[in-house]
């Protein structure tokens, strides 16, 4: 498979994403206004609660079995490593560029979460279907490739809606808290100025204040401990951990790995095949809907984005230089120590997980928190433009190394 063939295979899916993004941008223009703020919010909720879970459950239920899940145990570990490594690089980037607090969660999300499902579902089967593919028979390659991509998408979805969602929520709360603190400090200053004119001069009020202070001091340590536990419990929200896509992944794993359930739902002769067909039909709308939202958010981002140019350059460097190089080392080390088999297609997918552009779900999370959604669209635009060249380069290098 020559360089030109790899160029076409890697370039076409990325160009498709850019074209649909452009359509979303045009639909958000004031003259058309089909994807205004209200429409984007409603579409965002539709993807979050319906379309994305349907895609996850249909892909997993159809392609994952118990035996394949056992043999692919390293993939969830590998994906977790991409999130951790990306977060470390993001933290360094934030310190170097002095990223404003309101954008720090967005930077971590873009550096840690790659497009582990949508692009792999397009690129990997396309590579297999090439006549001179290095991965053998196209039918067998496509079957295994879809299974790898589906598992990657499901695991990535779980990590995004737990790990990334949790981090971006913390930073969004901090940004709101900082704004509220500034407002409260101003209000407190004004109130103190007013109270200074109305202070009581009686000794009784002073003694009561001293007794209250003493009693509060005795309980300060215990109170602080309970307050910390309460704050931590509030942050670990079960609704956040068990997001719709996470629940869908669990259901998909159950359907795919439990043979009696699989026979009832999956297959042309399955009695309940209408359930799988309906989920698959809904899931097909996920990728175009998410891409349209990215383009629609871009309209606002092109005019009001406050993200620093060096932040965008840093994210591109993390996702297309540092991460792919480390990914090559991680997969080669895993193969050396026997954690990954000799399947070249499996190794290729594991390496490719480090070289993907940011996940579009990061934009959905930013939209849900109303924090940096326009800046996220600008980051997505440039990272996907660069992906047209970077993904091609790394696909070629990974095939050569394998």
TrEMBL record:
It is a multi-pass membrane protein. The keyword Hydrolase does not apply. It comes from Hevea brasiliensis (Para rubber tree). Belongs to the auxin efflux carrier (TC 2.A.69.2) family. Keywords: Auxin signaling pathway, Endoplasmic reticulum, Membrane, Transmembrane, Transmembrane helix, Transport. This is Uncharacterized protein. It is found in: Endoplasmic reticulum membrane. It comes from the Eukaryota. Involved in cellular auxin homeostasis by regulating auxin metabolism. Regulates intracellular auxin accumulation at the endoplasmic reticulum and thus auxin availability for nuclear auxin signaling. The chain crosses the membrane at residues 6-30, 73-94, 106-127, 147-166, 240-261, 311-331, 351-369, 381-401. Its main location: endoplasmic reticulum. The keyword Membrane applies.
């Amino acid at each position: 498979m020559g360089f030109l063939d790899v160029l076409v295979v890697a370039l076409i899916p990325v160009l498709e994403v850019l074209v649909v993004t452009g359509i979303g941008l045009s639909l958000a223009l004031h003259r058309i206004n089909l994807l205004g703020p209200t429409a984007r919010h409603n579409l965002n909720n539709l993807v979050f609660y319906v379309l994305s879970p349907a895609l996850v459950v249909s892909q997993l239920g159809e392609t994952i079995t118990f035996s394949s899940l056992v043999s692919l145990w390293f993939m969830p570990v590998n994906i977790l490593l991409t999130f951790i490594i990306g977060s470390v690089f993001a933290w360094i980037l934030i310190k170097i560029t002095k990223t404003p607090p309101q954008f720090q969660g967005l930077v971590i999300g873009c550096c840690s979460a790659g497009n582990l499902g949508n692009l792999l579902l397009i690129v990997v089967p396309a590579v297999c279907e090439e006549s001179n593919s290095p991965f053998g028979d196209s039918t067998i390659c496509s079957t295994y490739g879809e299974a790898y991509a589906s598992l990657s998408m499901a695991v990535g979805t779980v990590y995004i809606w737990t790990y990334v969602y949790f981090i971006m929520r913390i930073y969004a709360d901090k940004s709101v808290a900082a704004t509220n603190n500034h407002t409260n400090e101003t209000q407190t200053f004004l109130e103190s100025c007013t109270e200074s004119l109305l202070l009581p001069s009686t000794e009784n009020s002073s003694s009561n204040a001293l007794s209250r202070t003493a009693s509060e001091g005795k309980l300060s340590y215990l109170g602080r401990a309970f307050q910390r536990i309460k704050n931590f419990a509030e942050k670990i929200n079960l609704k956040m951990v068990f997001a719709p896509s996470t629940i869908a992944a669990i259901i998909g794993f159950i359907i795919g790995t439990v043979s009696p359930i699989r026979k009832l739902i999956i297959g042309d002769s399955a009695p309940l095949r209408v359930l799988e067909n309906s989920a698959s039909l809904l899931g097909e709308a996920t990728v175009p809907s998410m891409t349209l939202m990215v383009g629609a958010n871009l309209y606002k981002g092109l005019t009001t984005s406050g993200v620093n140019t060096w932040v965008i350059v840093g994210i591109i460097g993390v996702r297309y230089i540092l991460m792919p190089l480390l990914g090559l080392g991680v997969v080669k080390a895993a193969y050396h120590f026997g954690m990954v088999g000799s399947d070249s297609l499996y190794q290729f997918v594991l390496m490719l997980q480090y070289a993907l552009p940011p996940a579009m779900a990061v934009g959905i999370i930013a939209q849900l928190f109303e924090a940096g959604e326009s800046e996220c669209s600008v980051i997505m635009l440039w990272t996907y433009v660069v992906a047209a060249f970077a993904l091609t380069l790394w696909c070629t290098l990974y095939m050569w190394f394998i």
